[in-house]
Design goal:
With 252 residues, this protein is mainly alpha-helical. It is 55% helix and 8% strand. A hairpin with a 5-residue loop joins strand 3 and strand 4. The radius of gyration is 19 Å and the shape is globular.
Protein backbone atom coordinates (compact mmCIF):
# COMPACT_ATOMS: atom_id res chain seq x y z
CA UNK A 1 0.00 0.00 0.00
CA UNK A 2 1.33 3.39 -0.98
CA UNK A 3 0.60 5.15 2.32
CA UNK A 4 2.40 2.41 4.26
CA UNK A 5 5.38 2.36 1.90
CA UNK A 6 5.78 6.15 1.93
CA UNK A 7 5.76 6.15 5.74
CA UNK A 8 8.35 3.36 5.72
CA UNK A 9 10.51 5.43 3.36
CA UNK A 10 10.17 8.48 5.62
CA UNK A 11 11.22 6.45 8.66
CA UNK A 12 14.14 4.99 6.71
CA UNK A 13 15.30 8.49 5.77
CA UNK A 14 15.05 9.58 9.40
CA UNK A 15 16.99 6.52 10.52
CA UNK A 16 19.63 7.12 7.88
CA UNK A 17 20.02 10.78 8.86
CA UNK A 18 20.25 9.85 12.55
CA UNK A 19 22.91 7.22 11.93
CA UNK A 20 24.92 9.55 9.71
CA UNK A 21 25.26 12.18 12.44
CA UNK A 22 25.95 9.91 15.42
CA UNK A 23 28.56 7.42 16.50
CA UNK A 24 26.00 4.62 16.69
CA UNK A 25 27.47 1.20 16.03
CA UNK A 26 26.15 -1.07 13.31
CA UNK A 27 24.77 -3.48 15.93
CA UNK A 28 22.65 -0.79 17.59
CA UNK A 29 21.49 0.34 14.16
CA UNK A 30 20.19 -3.17 13.58
CA UNK A 31 18.30 -3.05 16.86
CA UNK A 32 16.56 0.14 15.76
CA UNK A 33 15.69 -1.33 12.40
CA UNK A 34 14.19 -4.42 13.98
CA UNK A 35 12.04 -2.35 16.31
CA UNK A 36 10.73 -0.30 13.39
CA UNK A 37 9.41 -3.18 11.32
CA UNK A 38 8.44 -6.82 11.68
CA UNK A 39 10.67 -7.82 8.79
CA UNK A 40 14.28 -8.77 9.47
CA UNK A 41 16.99 -6.49 8.21
CA UNK A 42 18.69 -7.52 4.99
CA UNK A 43 22.31 -8.56 4.91
CA UNK A 44 23.42 -5.46 3.03
CA UNK A 45 22.06 -3.10 5.67
CA UNK A 46 23.36 -5.02 8.67
CA UNK A 47 26.86 -5.28 7.24
CA UNK A 48 27.09 -1.61 6.36
CA UNK A 49 28.81 0.75 8.81
CA UNK A 50 27.13 4.05 9.69
CA UNK A 51 27.42 6.37 6.71
CA UNK A 52 30.02 9.08 6.92
CA UNK A 53 28.08 11.71 4.98
CA UNK A 54 24.45 12.58 4.46
CA UNK A 55 22.68 12.21 1.15
CA UNK A 56 20.52 14.95 -0.30
CA UNK A 57 17.16 13.76 -1.59
CA UNK A 58 14.62 15.14 -4.02
CA UNK A 59 11.38 13.22 -3.87
CA UNK A 60 9.04 13.73 -6.80
CA UNK A 61 5.70 11.96 -6.77
CA UNK A 62 4.29 10.62 -10.03
CA UNK A 63 0.50 10.32 -10.40
CA UNK A 64 -1.22 6.99 -10.90
CA UNK A 65 -4.89 5.95 -10.94
CA UNK A 66 -5.92 2.40 -10.05
CA UNK A 67 -9.66 2.84 -10.72
CA UNK A 68 -10.09 5.51 -13.42
CA UNK A 69 -13.61 4.23 -14.16
CA UNK A 70 -14.94 5.15 -10.71
CA UNK A 71 -17.28 8.13 -10.96
CA UNK A 72 -18.92 8.41 -7.52
CA UNK A 73 -17.81 7.95 -3.94
CA UNK A 74 -18.48 4.54 -2.43
CA UNK A 75 -17.88 3.04 1.03
CA UNK A 76 -14.34 1.68 1.09
CA UNK A 77 -15.41 -1.45 2.94
CA UNK A 78 -18.07 -2.17 0.31
CA UNK A 79 -15.42 -1.94 -2.42
CA UNK A 80 -13.11 -4.25 -0.48
CA UNK A 81 -15.96 -6.70 0.18
CA UNK A 82 -16.81 -6.90 -3.52
CA UNK A 83 -13.14 -7.44 -4.31
CA UNK A 84 -13.00 -10.17 -1.66
CA UNK A 85 -15.81 -12.14 -3.30
CA UNK A 86 -14.06 -11.79 -6.65
CA UNK A 87 -10.78 -13.10 -5.24
CA UNK A 88 -11.82 -15.73 -2.72
CA UNK A 89 -15.58 -16.21 -3.10
CA UNK A 90 -16.20 -15.14 0.50
CA UNK A 91 -15.16 -12.57 3.12
CA UNK A 92 -11.84 -14.20 3.99
CA UNK A 93 -9.73 -11.92 1.80
CA UNK A 94 -11.20 -8.64 3.11
CA UNK A 95 -11.03 -9.84 6.71
CA UNK A 96 -7.37 -10.79 6.34
CA UNK A 97 -6.68 -7.54 4.49
CA UNK A 98 -8.02 -5.44 7.35
CA UNK A 99 -5.98 -7.36 9.92
CA UNK A 100 -2.78 -7.10 7.86
CA UNK A 101 -3.24 -3.41 7.15
CA UNK A 102 -4.11 -2.58 10.75
CA UNK A 103 -1.05 -4.38 12.13
CA UNK A 104 1.30 -3.02 9.46
CA UNK A 105 -0.06 0.49 10.06
CA UNK A 106 0.57 0.28 13.80
CA UNK A 107 4.24 -0.49 13.18
CA UNK A 108 4.75 2.81 11.35
CA UNK A 109 2.26 5.00 13.24
CA UNK A 110 -0.75 4.76 10.92
CA UNK A 111 -4.25 4.07 12.31
CA UNK A 112 -6.26 2.85 9.33
CA UNK A 113 -10.02 3.40 9.42
CA UNK A 114 -11.96 1.38 6.87
CA UNK A 115 -15.21 3.26 7.43
CA UNK A 116 -14.57 6.02 4.91
CA UNK A 117 -15.41 6.55 1.27
CA UNK A 118 -13.33 6.06 -1.87
CA UNK A 119 -13.85 7.90 -5.15
CA UNK A 120 -12.10 9.05 -8.28
CA UNK A 121 -8.69 10.50 -7.40
CA UNK A 122 -8.05 12.52 -10.58
CA UNK A 123 -8.78 15.89 -8.98
CA UNK A 124 -6.53 15.14 -6.03
CA UNK A 125 -3.75 14.24 -8.47
CA UNK A 126 -4.28 17.51 -10.36
CA UNK A 127 -4.05 19.33 -7.05
CA UNK A 128 -0.80 17.57 -6.18
CA UNK A 129 0.66 18.53 -9.56
CA UNK A 130 -0.26 22.15 -8.86
CA UNK A 131 1.26 21.93 -5.40
CA UNK A 132 4.55 20.58 -6.72
CA UNK A 133 4.65 23.24 -9.41
CA UNK A 134 3.80 25.98 -6.92
CA UNK A 135 5.65 24.89 -3.77
CA UNK A 136 8.30 22.41 -4.93
CA UNK A 137 9.30 18.82 -4.28
CA UNK A 138 11.08 18.86 -0.94
CA UNK A 139 11.01 15.58 0.99
CA UNK A 140 9.15 17.28 3.86
CA UNK A 141 7.40 20.24 2.24
CA UNK A 142 5.55 21.26 -0.91
CA UNK A 143 3.91 18.43 -2.81
CA UNK A 144 4.89 15.78 -0.25
CA UNK A 145 3.51 17.78 2.66
CA UNK A 146 0.12 17.96 0.95
CA UNK A 147 0.28 14.32 -0.18
CA UNK A 148 0.92 13.16 3.38
CA UNK A 149 -1.97 15.27 4.66
CA UNK A 150 -4.34 13.91 2.01
CA UNK A 151 -3.33 10.35 2.83
CA UNK A 152 -3.94 10.90 6.54
CA UNK A 153 -7.31 12.46 5.77
CA UNK A 154 -8.32 9.63 3.45
CA UNK A 155 -7.09 6.56 5.31
CA UNK A 156 -7.21 7.64 8.95
CA UNK A 157 -9.84 10.37 9.26
CA UNK A 158 -12.42 9.07 6.73
CA UNK A 159 -12.14 12.28 4.68
CA UNK A 160 -12.06 10.97 1.12
CA UNK A 161 -9.91 12.64 -1.53
CA UNK A 162 -12.93 12.26 -3.81
CA UNK A 163 -14.53 15.42 -2.39
CA UNK A 164 -13.31 18.94 -3.12
CA UNK A 165 -14.20 20.17 0.37
CA UNK A 166 -11.77 17.66 1.89
CA UNK A 167 -9.06 18.57 -0.60
CA UNK A 168 -9.34 22.25 0.24
CA UNK A 169 -9.32 21.52 3.98
CA UNK A 170 -6.07 19.63 3.48
CA UNK A 171 -4.59 22.57 1.55
CA UNK A 172 -5.57 24.88 4.40
CA UNK A 173 -4.05 22.53 6.98
CA UNK A 174 -0.74 22.53 5.13
CA UNK A 175 -0.69 26.33 4.99
CA UNK A 176 -0.91 26.62 1.21
CA UNK A 177 -3.04 28.98 -0.88
CA UNK A 178 -6.65 27.78 -0.61
CA UNK A 179 -8.05 30.26 -3.16
CA UNK A 180 -5.52 29.23 -5.77
CA UNK A 181 -6.18 25.55 -5.03
CA UNK A 182 -9.92 26.15 -5.44
CA UNK A 183 -9.31 27.67 -8.87
CA UNK A 184 -7.37 24.57 -9.89
CA UNK A 185 -10.15 22.24 -8.71
CA UNK A 186 -12.87 24.30 -10.40
CA UNK A 187 -11.01 24.24 -13.72
CA UNK A 188 -10.94 20.57 -14.84
CA UNK A 189 -8.39 21.21 -17.58
CA UNK A 190 -5.73 22.58 -15.20
CA UNK A 191 -2.92 20.03 -14.75
CA UNK A 192 -5.13 17.31 -16.24
CA UNK A 193 -2.88 16.64 -19.21
CA UNK A 194 0.21 16.61 -17.02
CA UNK A 195 -1.40 13.93 -14.85
CA UNK A 196 -2.52 11.83 -17.82
CA UNK A 197 0.88 12.12 -19.50
CA UNK A 198 2.62 10.92 -16.34
CA UNK A 199 0.24 7.98 -16.01
CA UNK A 200 0.85 7.01 -19.63
CA UNK A 201 4.60 7.31 -19.11
CA UNK A 202 4.34 4.96 -16.12
CA UNK A 203 2.38 2.43 -18.17
CA UNK A 204 4.92 2.66 -20.98
CA UNK A 205 7.67 2.02 -18.43
CA UNK A 206 5.93 -1.20 -17.39
CA UNK A 207 4.45 0.15 -14.14
CA UNK A 208 0.87 -1.04 -13.76
CA UNK A 209 0.49 -1.11 -9.98
CA UNK A 210 1.50 0.99 -7.00
CA UNK A 211 3.42 1.68 -4.87
CA UNK A 212 6.59 1.73 -6.94
CA UNK A 213 9.66 3.75 -5.89
CA UNK A 214 12.44 4.54 -8.37
CA UNK A 215 15.79 5.62 -6.93
CA UNK A 216 18.20 7.34 -9.36
CA UNK A 217 21.77 8.38 -8.64
CA UNK A 218 25.26 8.60 -10.14
CA UNK A 219 27.77 6.02 -8.97
CA UNK A 220 31.14 7.67 -8.36
CA UNK A 221 32.58 4.24 -7.63
CA UNK A 222 31.78 3.19 -11.18
CA UNK A 223 32.95 6.10 -13.31
CA UNK A 224 30.07 8.43 -12.36
CA UNK A 225 27.66 6.18 -14.25
CA UNK A 226 23.90 6.66 -13.80
CA UNK A 227 22.27 4.01 -11.64
CA UNK A 228 18.63 3.18 -10.95
CA UNK A 229 16.82 0.82 -8.59
CA UNK A 230 13.10 0.15 -8.22
CA UNK A 231 11.31 -0.95 -5.06
CA UNK A 232 7.86 -2.44 -5.63
CA UNK A 233 5.08 -2.91 -3.11
CA UNK A 234 4.81 -2.01 0.57
CA UNK A 235 8.46 -2.56 1.44
CA UNK A 236 9.50 -2.45 5.11
CA UNK A 237 11.74 0.20 6.62
CA UNK A 238 14.77 -2.10 6.49
CA UNK A 239 14.51 -2.49 2.71
CA UNK A 240 14.61 1.26 2.20
CA UNK A 241 17.51 1.62 4.64
CA UNK A 242 19.43 -0.93 2.59
CA UNK A 243 18.81 1.10 -0.56
CA UNK A 244 20.01 4.31 1.12
CA UNK A 245 23.17 2.63 2.35
CA UNK A 246 23.87 1.26 -1.11
CA UNK A 247 23.47 4.73 -2.64
CA UNK A 248 25.70 6.23 0.04
CA UNK A 249 28.41 3.65 -0.64
CA UNK A 250 28.30 4.22 -4.38
CA UNK A 251 28.34 8.02 -4.17
CA UNK A 252 31.18 8.44 -1.66
Amino acid sequence: HGYLAKRALSLAMLQYQTSSTSSTSSSSMLQYQTSSTSSTSSSSSTSSPPPSACLTFELKRKPFILRPERKVCMPWLDVLTELSYQRSGDLSWVNNFQVRMTEAGKEVGIAFDFGGLVGNSLDSLRLLEWCGDRYGYSVTDGQEKLADTLARYHFELKLTVGKHSNLLSAVEDTGFDVEEAARVLSTPSMYRQEVLDSINAAHNAGIHSIPCFTFSWHSTSNGDSPRQLMVHGSAPVSDFVSVLHRIQQETN
